[in-house]
Amino acid sequence: MIRYECDRCGERLGANDPKRFIVKLEVYAAAGHLEFTESDLDATSKLNEVIEELAVADPDELEDQTYRHFRFDVCDACRKIILSNPLGIKSPQ
Ligand SMILES: [Zn+2]
């Protein structure tokens, strides 16, 4: 029998446990793809600039800037907490 535990609080959960929920989180750049004009391609300056930036960039940082996804198993109590404040924003005190 596959056992799960809540990734937030550690509560033990069964595979078909009605108290087990899955949280998926995707983070990706809002900007669209790069646009190149004919003159950009002729001069290749913009393209070279992008290539130079990629050559020295940290691969993990590039991945973080483009697309990351996460999947969590959570219990019912943690589901409610997450849904009440998905971004975990602290309220002013
Ligand atoms: Zn939990």
| pLDDT < 50 runs, ≥5 residues | none
Q: How many beta strands in the DSSP annotation? A: 4
Total number of helical segments?
4
Q: What value does the Rg take, in angstroms?
A: 21 Å
Structural class: alpha+beta
Strand order, largest beta sheet: 1-2
Which quaternary structure do these chains form?
single chain
How much helix is in the residues? 25-40%
Q: How many structural domains does the protein architecture include?
A: 1
**What is the residue-mean pLDDT, rounded to a whole number?**
87
How much of the sequence is in beta strands?
15-25%
How many angstroms does the end-to-end distance come to? 45 Å
Structure report:
There is one protein chain. With 93 residues, the protein is an alpha+beta fold. The chain has one domain. Helices cover 38% and strands 24% of the residues. The strands form 2 sheets. The protein has a two-stranded antiparallel ribbon. A two-stranded antiparallel sheet has the order 3-4. A hairpin with a 6-residue loop joins strand 1 (3-5) and strand 2 (12-14). The protein is elongated and about 60 Å long. It starts with a strand and ends in a 9-residue tail after the last helix. The model has no long low-confidence stretch (mean pLDDT 87). Residues 6, 8-9, 11, 74-75, 77-78 line the site of zinc ion.
